[in-house]
Amino acid sequence: MIAAVFSAVAQGEVKMSTWGHTADGTAVPIYTLTSGQLEVRVSAYGAHLVSVKAPDKAGKMADVVLGYDTIEGYQSDTKTYFGAVVGRYGNRIALGKFTIDGKTYQIPVNNGANALHGGPKGFDQYVWQAHEVPDGVEFTHVSPDGDMGFPGTLTAHVRYTLHGDTLRIDYSATTDKATVLNITNHAYFNLRGDDAADILGDKIEINADKFTPTDAGLIPTGELAPVAGTPVDFRKPEVIGARINADYEPLKLAGGYDHNFVLNGKMGTLHLAAIVTDPISGRKLTVETTEPGVQFYTGNFLDGTITGRHGVVYAKNWGFCLETQHFPDSPNHKNFPSTELKPGETMHSTTTFAFSVVK
Ligand code: GLA
Predict the structure, then answer these.
(1) Residue 325: CB within 6 Å of ligand 1?
(2) What is the pLDDT of residue 3?
(3) What SS3 string covers the chain?
């Protein structure tokens, strides 16, 4: 009886504290969400997912996302997007250019010739408004008309809630002019816990028969190519490192996995994106989404120059991302699901990350 009372109290607790200040002096709240199974920390700066503590097969809790201990860490790194909410447009837009209703817009480029994750000052670099909701917190950011070249005043909401073993992220947005958007979370997972090893020994299954091959600048060619018979076929669980160095053009262009997969499920309803297990810790992550795609990225650009949380040096392949999303460069591909949002419409998107163990 007493145990039941205690576990009821432990469910759905949300605590706010001040984490620190940005360089311009803005106070940044951080929220700690706890359920019986998980502890999650999310920050109003960049609406970052800062920490996720999950149990291993022995019940030992450890952090399973890469990141920094301080806001300064996040503020001084505008390249890796650890745990960030990326927007307005996650992933790349070719040459930073697109056309809506005959008018061409230019996003400042920040990744070779292309725009990445919304341009040089994306959603990851703002302090969002925060308010508590049942089991979590909702962050709101208003991006003014013309911000980073995008049309329309865009009001974006990102809601993190914790339900038992599942972290849920709900995104919604409205605009006052026709625009494009693709908002996602860029968490790097490391299921071993506390960033203890690279992720090459993990097994991943991705629920996709097709992917979107790219050119050398990682811009989709427009083709939806079958994964069958290639090293990007993850329809059955495969060890991440087993084929990562295969002699296969799409892997060579990206220096590993950095590909958008066309999910088999129905867009708009929650469907399986991917399942990853770490055989050593036993931790298992199941990702479901309402989005049509997922970018599986194996931290190919981590190069040992970053020291993250726990004083760990993040070398190549130290984390993997599963960025649930619309496809990269959709505004320039009529055959991809549309990323346009018009006044009067509301964009809704949901992704869930469930943590369990295999023994
Ligand atoms: C995305 C991209 C990668 C890389 C990272 C950020 O996942 O697909 O190519 O730019 O963001 O480092």
Answers:
(1) no
(2) 42
(3) CHHHHHHHHHCCEEEEEEEEECCCCCEEEEEEEECCCCEEEEECECCCEEEEEEECCCCCEEECECCCCCHHHHHHCCCCCCCCEECCECCEEHHHEEEECCEEEECCCCECCEEECCCCCCHHHCECEEEEECCEEEEEEEECCCHHHCCCCEEEEEEEEEECCEEEEEEEEEECCCEECECEECCEECCCCCCCCCCCCCEEEECEEEECCECCCCCECCCCEECCCCCCCCCCCEEHHHCCCCCCHHHHHHCCCEEEEEECCCCCCCEEEEEEECCCCCEEEEEEECCCEEEEECCCCCCCCEECHHHCEECCCCCEEEEEECCCCHHHCCCCCCCEECCCCCEEEEEEEEEEECC
